[in-house]
## 1
Amino acid sequence: MSIAAQQGWKTVSLGYQGTPYPTVLADGTPVLNADHVPLISSKRSAEEVNGVAFRSMPAPEHLPYFFSVLDAIHKKSRRAFMTLSEPGVGKSVLADVISIMMTGKSALCYECGDKRLSDLLFTTALTERPEQTLYDRVLEKVKDGKAHLLSIARLKHTLGNAFDPATASVDWGKVVEQNQEIAAIDETFKAIAQAEGINMQSSIALREGKGVIVQGYEEDRVVLADEYTDGKPDSFKSLNATLEWLMQRTPEIKVKSNSGLEYELGNLDAKPGFFVFLTGNHAGDSYSTSELPQSQHSRLKPTILPSLGKLGLSHRFCQMMTGVPLSTLHRLYGQHFETNPEGFVEFCKGIRKLGLSAQEIERIPAHQLAFLEHPRQIIDAADKCAEFFLRWQNKINLNSNNLPEALMGELSDDYVKANTPDPRLFDNLFKGALERAERQAAKDLVVNPGAAFAPLTSGDLVASVSIGRVGNALMGMIAEEIRNKTPQQPSLRGILLTDAVELGLLPSRQNRGSDPVTTIAQLLSGEESAPTNSGTAAQGTSPAGAVSQLPPANTGTTMPFASGNLNIGELVPDKGIFAGVWEPKDRQGNSLGKRYNVFAAPEDLTDSSGKKVLLKFKDAAREVANLKNWHGHNGAGVANDTALYEALRDGSYNGGWFIPTRDLLGSKDGGKDVDDNVVHDETLYKHRNTGAFANTFQMVDKSSSDIGEYYWSCSEHRDDSVYVWYARFTDGGGGWLHKGSHRLSCRPCRVELAL
């Protein structure tokens, strides 16, 4: 029996009878070929290996490299592989996927950026020093003022800013961070000790240990030297002998550190799981700090991974959303399920669970299984996102012959380098959308607990409710990203917003025409029809049908749109009366960094019969918080201005109705904050007679205790929270009124993120 077999290694083939693992054509198109059976050495079962291989399948553009690595690993013809690419395409992920396929463990990773590459063999660490060391005795003499000036100068030269002569101390953490040579430091202290007549018996304060290559060799593991080309330029030569050994041009080597630490590395046949992946950014793309020396280039023969096109981006986006490369699976295997779409759903769910334990299956995110229920819509959403990201990349490509003239003055080399989107951007946006949707779901369940959800645990319930909101949250994240990336590029911002609306990544005001654009929010919720009521979140697939039992969900900041040609006072169906754009500041005067379109209700607060009501503040706040589908939206569940600002800041605001803040309500003096500073101009009072607002506010006092022309705000007094601001709509006066003293009118408002 071979050494590998004795250690539990075996050969596993990828794919199954009737479900071969895909190969690729010359143009990069993935196809099926029953005669092409990739093999890999692994300690895992065939189900576990194939589960990882199918779920984490490389993008179609990268499959050729994946197969070449698998072939080399199976044949053990080399132990080092190097890939170069532009940032974010997934070169590091490939190493991790192969490692998990082989052993179930992630690769041992070392970030090489701006570090000595010899650290891959030997790491530097501080040691515990139970007794005084040579270093301590030297520094003690410096502190006592008894050291010669030349000794102090030598310490400064060797340790740099890690040495503080005023306190005679060394910042050893800084020494490690700056990758200073241990041998040079030790020699300096020894030389000073000898010159100063100090006892030489000592153990040094810094110690070297095993780097990831030595550790990976000893543990028979995959190693990832990430951003290898960004290591310190003068340290490449320290790995030359090691690379010769990894490429199996020499049977064994001895590696020795500057402090004398030594290891023997050899007999690779006894290490079937030991492989080293080195990555770097393409030397010609201006991202890399160093070019790979020719001597190492000739040894490693690096592979340049291509950029991801639409196929690859859609593939990756589907993996993020569903846990499987849904678009590629559909392209490869979908034709077998043309008459049985439910069968394809079950096939994809089987891939998602393949090789997992019962506990691991329980931990599969609920949104992934829900999205797999409507694969065609998810693929359409991924395709839309892929198309948008490619357009964005092309729009800011300074080498393009089609660069719009309007952008020439807005784009610089530095701007393009810092703001060109790569595939990781979608990953981050989608993760943010999930978190935002879950926060809002959790908050809504506190406000509207609903006895109908008793069969579900609270965790399941939050997950199920949030699924139908992920798409809207994602649209909100995309809008914010465009705005954040174009602070001084208005032309680019306009172009990107237009593209986003055209592709359905953002909603349009005119989205109910004869040829409506289906948004990604609708697609992620399983819809393909024309947009529905914007105040109601689309229903997603969820356990026990929980989402369908919820009251209509508010979209708020998660459904941004450009106000464009909207006029203040214009009644927008399913939104309210447009009241301008608001850039809120919290009670401390800090900007929230967001812009919102403000919509006021078309009427004052009413009771269940539709009759206007006058209420004390606490009653009004409770009634507004608990509104259900009132003019298409629920209550936001915020009790005062502090709660509103917090919900807007953390993204948990749900687009629901709230009592306006003092600056939104306004008075004859404008929109002021709680400290009497004017912070907003377009107030409800100012526009009380504009457009659809006309004749909807009460202007005449009808009693002494029920003051109908007085309107509540939700802004509490700075020093006494039992008082809130009110405005009198007959003449614009206002003041602070006790929450329980009088019954006033209330005009609820809601906001949506503005582009």
Note: The radius of gyration is 32 Å.
## 2
Amino acid sequence: MTRRKIGILSTTHELTKAQRDLVLWARSSDRYTISNLIVVVAPNYSPKGLHNGSSPSGKQSTAEKSRAVVLRILTKLESRLTKRSGYPNFFDNFDPDLLKLKVTVITADTSNSQSLQVGNLEKLDEVKALELDLVIDIDSGANLGGPSQAVPWNILLLSYKDNRLNMGGPAGFWESAQGQKSTGFMLGLRQSGETEWNVLSRGNISTSFLFTINHARLCEKAQPFLYSAIDKILVGQATFLEATEAPFDSRPMSLPTVKTQARYIWSSLKRIFRNRRLYRTLRWNVAYQFTSSWQNISFWKSFTIKNPAGRYLADPFMVKENGKHYCFVEDFSVELRKGVIAVYEVSPHGYEDLGTALEEDFHLSYPFIFSHEGHLYMCPETAQIREIRLYVCKEFPTKWELSAVLMRDVDAADTSIFWHHDRWWMFSNICSADIGEHGSELHIFHSKELFSSSWTAHTNNPVVFDSRWARNAGLIFDQKKIFRVHQRQGFDAYGEAFGVSEITHLSEKKFSENNLFIVEPNFFPRSLGTHTLNYDGEVVVFDYADTVKLLSQSFANLNSKIKRLLPK
């Protein structure tokens, strides 16, 4: 088999981590080879800083040089935190010689450029002579061919920006500096002989308040989709998103001024020390309300189940059995940093703690429960052991046993399973990058058999790639309609709010839903978030976050520890 030839476009003689990982990925395949690095440079220009994030024009003013210097210092300082956050070598640079890449250097035309643009035919012929099947541009800031100039090869662009919201600037910076809820990337293809870009895919993750972490997370999340795009392009199976036209209402971003960077630093420092100064920490709570219409309730009228000492409750699901109502919840120990599944019986007159329903050596949450052939099954989140499990109820409501492992070695959270038409459907929040980021991707699988260990992936997975409505937060069946409850992640905020969508089409090749409404956490004093809603036909149950004093939490943890040590 002849290997397809791929080149990497860059504006530096060193590789970023994303470029290095791409080369190693291609080397592990018998279908591709990456042996060329195309470096586009401008006279008197040596790009340094945040992964080619400085101005590439080669004509930097004193102000631009000052911005770039401050950004390099800021990046270096923040990268220390980034390394401790699970990205140890993200800002390292790699020598292409060690990867045996042939470097081709081309001088750009810079007469009117805000980017490094190569339009000279003789220079483009140097690239053409490499006989590449595909050129990959990972947000380099270079452009082979003018705006209306076709080139005789395919160019795949991975842009670390959602170009519907943000154009230009260091990747991940402006979203953090402006407190935007999400940060996006785009994969686009410019085919041989064409001048227009076609969008292959987009993705949006929740924004971190430190821009280096924001940048690192975005790059890691985008990387597997880059690999998938290469596969599809080179076998002729690439499909494009439907083009939509909308006005761009933001100004194009550029290298942030020193003043802007100073404001960002001040804002970040305030955020870092705010909780320490207030001596408060976040906790989750569960509340319920009896109602005949889950869509028309007043949340503030609900009753809260009091958190046990040293623990908090979240992710509630309702089950009606023998005329009684049971609320299954994640029961999280703050001291042990581990959750079990607990159950409460609720009534119009109050609630009763019935104890632990399911406990394992690993963390459990999101106890999704459904019935099948006269049995109750629970599919709790078991992301810590990288499995999707199914438990069967042996003695309701507190005795459950493992029934099947539906998926292994998968980075998945908050899985919902249900029967629809002629098969079982599984909705799960899977992290394709395998970094434990479960808030942005919704994946669907289907199977004729519930206990199958080989579920079929939906054609369009992930069917949602947006942190504002991807993560599951419950599932409601009402009048033959299916309503998916979904979390909305905020700016550096998990579970900021939840929304409800009606599933309007679900088949092997298509998924669509209609977003109906968003519920903000305004129903109780000091509530800061809400991320689950469920209904059993008579009782609505939901969770919400507020804060508790760290000193009070410490006393509660101590009290819980003493109780565990005392003989029963």
Note: The domain at 4-274 is CATH 3.40.50.170 (Rossmann fold).
## 3
Amino acid sequence: MPFAAGRFRVAVRIAGEGEDNRKNALQFLLLHEIGHVLSAGCGLVPDRWLQPGKIGSLDSYSFLPLSWRTGPSGQAAPRGPNAFPQQPRLAYYGEACLASEDILPTYRNLLATNFFTLYAALSPDEDFAESFALYVHTELLHKPYFVRSYHDGHLLLQYASQWDEPRFAAKRQLLQCFLPDFATAIRQPFVPLIGVAPLMRRAFLQEDLAPLALALLDRAEAHPQDAHAYLDCSTVLQLTGHRELALAVQAEAMRLQQSYRQPYGGAAPALRLLVIMGPGDLMANTPIEFLLEDSDVAIELLYVSDELAMPASLPPHDLLMVAVAESDASQALLAKLADWLRQRHQPVLNRPEDIASLPRDRVCRRLAPTAGVQMPTTARLPRRQLEQLSTEPGLLPQLLPGAAFPLIVRPLGSHAGHDLEKVDDAEALAAYLGQVGADGFYLAPFVDYRDADGQFRKYRVVPIDGAPFICHHAISSHWMVHYLDAGMHESAPKRAEEAQCMAQFEHGFAVRHRAALAEINQRIGLP
């Protein structure tokens, strides 16, 4: 800090409540360093390795003249009100040159400058790095930034810069050109589709998606034929928990247009993939966009439904893939697709009749005979039978032969752990039914598969041409293991174990279970 210890102090807030952690602090620091990288050799500010007399004229730079001038010896110096009295004595490394009593007048003087932070006043390159970092942090990520000054524990001043202040207008305009505001950019009508993967990544980073949703809604209202606005808006609404409204907006998008090209930044793609999609939420279709993002495969989505007629012709493509997932709701659509594709005589990845044969209770029966596989029996039961079981636990052998409490219960059609619970006894089952109003459920025995260290481990394995490949290895103290909720990102030891697992998979796990994995692949029958 540039201020010596004393009765005055400052506190800086860069994260919201519950988000003050090492990850967010590192993200903030990395944004600053990225700003340095982006400014190098770009004519924004003098490169830091240039000698003072070698920086050239102000006209050579786009960012430099906004806050700086050239001094007598050719070095950059603050211009106008930016040259506040404390600026020459700012020193963040080494011994502080300012007293704690200087905190309040320094930040009051800073309010008259166009430096977004005090650190930006150190030099032109720090000015740009701070401006870039704080623009992304506050404007694009919608995270807080403010500085509070205290005297003996009492708040004296809160310094909270906002990019819409007139003093920042020129810098904001330059940064918007350099790094356009996403919500502003997508207000333009008929722009390309954003797509599920980029939007979900923003949700994962805990960005505030409300401004984006409003921008898309405004665009759809202003341009009722802009199908891209409707489909992207549907995705954002799903990510923000407005499922029913999202599905209504999605239906309007499908009415306007059935075919949607995913963003593709390359030249000629190595493969043109046409993906058949059905209506529904984010669990209703295989999320192929995540698997092929930034690849040399160009994706076009073709939405179909029970109500819409199948298209007479298809967009140009090299391979067709059916992404519609199995569920009770999709069975009619899968049957319709099977009849339609039988008439086309072309290679298909994931034939719809094969997808339709994969409900959980049928998969368990299909895999149960596989040597080396423990496949818990799964029963499909109407609600009334579970209600009866919750009052008469002696009925369990009739409903699920060989099973005992605890049990695993989930509604038909649920995915990603939604309303999936372990019930330890009939009383817990009754409480579960009181909270979940579904008409049908899957019921299975709970298998305690934790290792000696008390951790549950999940391997996600994908066969490609029959050969098994591991996608991830997750470790959790909870029996329901989802990679994002297992603390994998926060735990270096867990990631190290995963890395070791993946490095040794081909010669370890894959060898030990070669026969079982091959038979599972054969019995499932996809693609």
Note: The CA atoms of residues 405 and 424 lie 6 Å apart.
## 4
Amino acid sequence: MTHYQKARPYAYYALLILTLTYILNFIDRTIISILAEEIKAGLHVDDASLGFLYGTAFAVFFSICGIPLARLADVWSRKKLIGCGVFLWSLMTALSGTAHSFTALAIYRVGVGVGEAAAAPASLSMLADLFNKKIRATAYGIWSTGVFIGSGLGFAVGGATLSVYRKWFPNGEAPFGMQDWQLSMFLVGVPGLLLAALVLMLREPKRGQMDDEVVEQSNVRPLKLFLQELAAVIPPFTVYNLYRLSGRQNASHAPGGELRGKRSVVVRNIGYGLLLAAIASVCIYFLGSPGQWITLALGGYAFVSWLQRVKIVDFPCFVMVFKSKAMRYSVLGFSLIGFTSYGLGFWFAPYIIRRFHSTPSEVGAMMGIIVFAAGILSILAGGYCSDLLKRLTPKARPYMGLVSMLALPFYYMALQAQDLSMLYTYASLGIFWGMIWIPSSLAMASELCPPRMRATAIAFNQLAGTLIGLAMGPYIMGEISVVMGNMGYNEADSLQMAMLLGLTVSAPLAVFMLVKASWYVEEEENTVPKRAADAGEMPLADLTSLARELPC
């Protein structure tokens, strides 16, 4: 019988603080949805630009910085990393209230993405060392409620501040010339500066302590490591970085001892870059929106460069995270669900305002309640049911992703509803079923690799979800809305068709990927130690020296 260590009371306090940071994360991220119509009018932009602002500008740099920050989370103090991230993204959100152009707001959104990139991998890595495998998905589920508490508060606070602004400044004569949406952004950014201090006061748990595989903390210089890891994904530093690493005699390598040649690694990297540039050029030629496709290509290039680097410096981690079929298929499947979740999550509020001519404060209040209640129930039920189902079948995690497909008919009915109360009813049911997969995706990523690789695995899960879901979902739906508008449809009808089309395309692909993941998950989870050893993983006693000797 497997022995599990019990979580201590302090673990639940740490869980509370980390959940608060995640709540704030999504307040700052989501508020732009309820402010979309005001931003659109104030900055004179279209739906595609709003989708880029909410999704791509945030998501790509969130992903690029998430790569080195996840690496840092595997070797440095996670509480310090999270605290610094909270401070940065809160400051950038507050500064968004000073933006008077689309470019300035986009730059601040990039800053929010950089700050928020520090939170998830480090938080989930900490939680894995505070809660044992028996209740880990439940802990992840509680932490994940921050998505919906934060999103709900983002809608409610954003709508409320717009209402208050209009009562206090009916002529728009606010201090410093701030518009209504600017005041909202400023007010939600300030509290995070205080929360950062609470995070820094947490105690750092020992890595692997809940799995009886304690890994000693390595001594690293965080800023140096972050900049070196960042250089590994930012062109043209990537080429030099890979050239340097491929020639190091102490670089990790595949069994057999054959190091990759410098030229082959560099040529591959340049080839990937040229391929992505060509794809972006084709998309720009036929679809326009150069900012979207250049930014997305940059994110893709950062990912493949990171993958090449991991293969050189930490081959066991490369094998366990990127060669795992269960990991790859599940990450793609959950990311495609995220395409729908992020797209609908952003556009529902603007759609309701356009279709039913509701005020932002009314929509913000109702969407806040729905997202909060349905989302919380979904995440808690998803974590509990995933753990319960895990006792019956090792395929529980991908199966919970398939269960979330029950959301589709409710989303369709919500978008077809002619009555506002029915729309809210169907939307709440869609959100409940549509988000039930989240704890399972996090738990599955952490269960398919050894403890020291969890932050990297979670970063892979997060990066794919961000690039496929957040960077593509809101923008693609916004772009389709613009195209429909150019064909003569009104704003409400064009957005409705864009959301329906997004649902129809992504769902079948998600089902296919999750079914494939379920074929491999049992064998790969049961063979984690053997697969790691076969890939060249060192004994636990040597891991500290490995962390110190890895080329940076």
Note: The chain has one domain: 9-206+219-549.
